[in-house]
Design brief:
4-stranded mixed β-sheet, 4-stranded antiparallel β-sheet, binds flavin-adenine dinucleotide, about 375 residues, Butyryl-CoA Dehydrogenase, subunit A, domain 3, globular, alpha+beta, single chain, about 15% strand, Butyryl-Coa Dehydrogenase, subunit A, domain 1, Butyryl-CoA Dehydrogenase, subunit A, domain 2, about 50% helix, 3 domains
């Protein structure tokens, strides 16, 4: 395996970095404080191909590889983890689920608008009483005599639950069959019977909308069924295998941003008559973080490399997500520590990395669940 970037990948990184620095950096705190997702960014993200990174050019996608995807998410997260989270959820969950398991008609109907950034995609698995144990969901899809469906229930913590335009939602279609009794559905926000509930007021990732979605006698036509009936949960696990590569890349990018902020500050801040970067205690923090970030990046690119070759990467994506998210927490913590008191106030980026990073050991499967996934794979060998 050779993870040295190609010339195209170097250009891609430079392009996304420049975009993030000019279009995002100046507004990051304003979006965070207002808990505002900047919809005006969507056409600009789409123009760079970031709303349809890995999707087929026949539906308007950018046709990039999984490694390219990691580079894009990293560079967005280095500047604004919230926007990176929204882009990753849009690409890696909703749009990916439709691209992987939708029929031709569904792909033609939904993908062009999603990859063009006309609408944001939402993906609903989690419920108030079913998080890590997602198969314990209670939202039901009742099949009608004419093949149509009626959804009742609610989804919790849904990225773009309020501001999304298209949603993939999982629901129990056959109570007798446990995991094999769950089906996926694709629907438009605004479908009668579907509404957004509470918008969460969050610790971090505040510019990314996280809301409840409610279904009350929500009638869906037969062709809203996404993938085979009863296969929704099984398909979800495959979506998550790839989705976790995105969260790993987000973690690498956030850690890189925090590390760079700490390094810059350490060279500027003087105590005891010299820049604090002159103290070995600070140098070791920088050296350890730079090393851990590089290791996390390689694990992440390895999982992406396997995905690009069509190799199953359940273990590798879980390892990448687990390791990258945990080292990112450490990088953000050290960033605050190196800033001292200035790390605790909003004039510097450290406190925001510190708040945003915690989601990464929780979303798309907590660290505990990643360990469980890894251990299962190891023990099955
Ligand atoms: C900002 C944000 C965005 C999100 N976006 C989405 C989205 O777009 N779509 C979506 O469907 N969901 C989304 N989620 C939900 C997210 O995936 C869940 O929060 C996550 O899977 C954990 O579920 P939970 O919150 O119910 O925690 P719980 O499952 O209740 O876990 C609580 C604690 O118990 C531990 N635990 C649980 N089971 C075990 C076990 N078997 N062994 C050991 N420890 C265990 C967990 O690791 C955790 O530490 C989002 C969440 C957040 C905060």
């Amino acid at each position: 395996m050779d993870f040295r970037p190609t010339e195209e990948q170097e250009l891609l990184r430079r392009t996304v970095r420049e975009f993030a620095e000019t279009e995002m950096r100046p507004h990051v705190m304003e979006w965070d404080e207002a808990q505002h997702f900047p919809m005006e960014l969507l056409p600009k993200l789409a123009a760079l191909g970031l709303m349809g990174i890995q999707f087929d050019e026949s539906v308007g996608g950018s046709g990039m590889s999984a490694v390219d995807y990691c580079i894009c998410i990293e560079e967005l997260a280095r500047v604004c983890p919230s926007i990176a989270l929204s882009v990753a959820a849009h690409n890696g969950l909703c749009t990916a689920h439709i691209a992987m398991f939708g029929n031709d008609a569904q792909k033609q109907k939904f993908l062009p608008r999603l990859v063009a950034g006309e609408v944001l995609g939402a993906w609903g698995l989690t419920e108030a009483s079913a998080g890590s144990d997602a198969a314990g969901m209670r939202t039901v899809a009742a099949k009608q005599a004419d093949g149509s469906w009626v959804l009742n229930g609610s989804k919790t913590f849904i990225t773009h639950g309020k501001i999304g335009g298209v949603m993939v939602a999982m629901a129990v279609s056959d109570r007798t069959k446990s995991r094999r009794g769950i089906s996926a559905f694709v629907l438009e926000h605004g479908t009668p019977g579907m509404s957004a509930g509470k918008k969460e007021n969050k610790l971090g990732m505040r510019a990314s909308d996280t809301s409840e979605v409610l279904f009350q006698d929500c009638r869906l036509p037969a062709d809203a069924l996404l993938g085979e009936e009863g296969q929704g949960f099984i398909n979800t696990l495959q979506v998550l295998d790839a989705g976790r590569i995105g969260i790993a890349a987000l973690s690498v990018g956030l850690a890189q941003g925090a590390y760079e902020a700490a390094r810059t500050y350490a060279k500027e801040r003087k105590q005891f008559g010299q820049p604090i970067a002159g103290f070995q205690a600070i140098q070791w923090k920088l050296a350890d973080n730079a090393t851990r970030i590089e290791a996390a990046r390689l694990l992440t690119y390895h999982a992406a490399y396997l995905k690009d070759r069509g190799v199953r990467m359940t273990k590798e994506s879980a390892m990448a997500k687990l390791f990258a998210s945990e080292i990112a927490v450490k990088a953000a913590d050290d960033c605050v520590q190196i800033h001292g008191g200035y790390g605790f106030v909003k004039d510097y980026p450290a406190e925001k990395y510190f708040r945003d990073v915690k989601l990464l050991t929780i979303g798309e499967g907590t660290s505990e669940i990643q360990r469980l996934v890894i251990a299962r794979q190891l023990l099955a060998q």
